[in-house]
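Reply to dn_fold:

You asked what the input looked like. This is it:
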Amino acid sequence: MNERRLELAMRRGWLQSEIDLQRRRIADQAQPLANALDKVDGLAGRVRGLRDHPGLIGAAVAALVILRPRRLWRWGKRGLALWTLGRSLRTRLSGFFGG
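and this is what came back:
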C-alpha cells in the first residue's frame, strides 16, 4: 500500500507542476490581450470624463462653428460615422458576450 501512495504522491506532484506551467503559459499568452484591454479601459475613462463635462464639448463645438464651419461639417460626418460604427459594434459584441 505504501508503494501505491508513493506513486499517487509523485503523480500528484507532477500534475501540480504541469498545472503551474500551463497557468504561466496562459498568463504569458494573455498579456497582449490584457494590454489591449487596458487601453480600452483608458479610452472608456476619457469618454466618461467627456460625458460628465458636457460644457467642454459645447465649448469645443462653439469654437469650431466660429472658426471653421466647413471643418465642423467634415468632423461632424466623421463623428457620426464613428458613432454609428460604435453602436453597431456594441450590438454585435453584446450578442457575442451574452450581454
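The chain has a mean pLDDT of 87.
Hope that clears it up.
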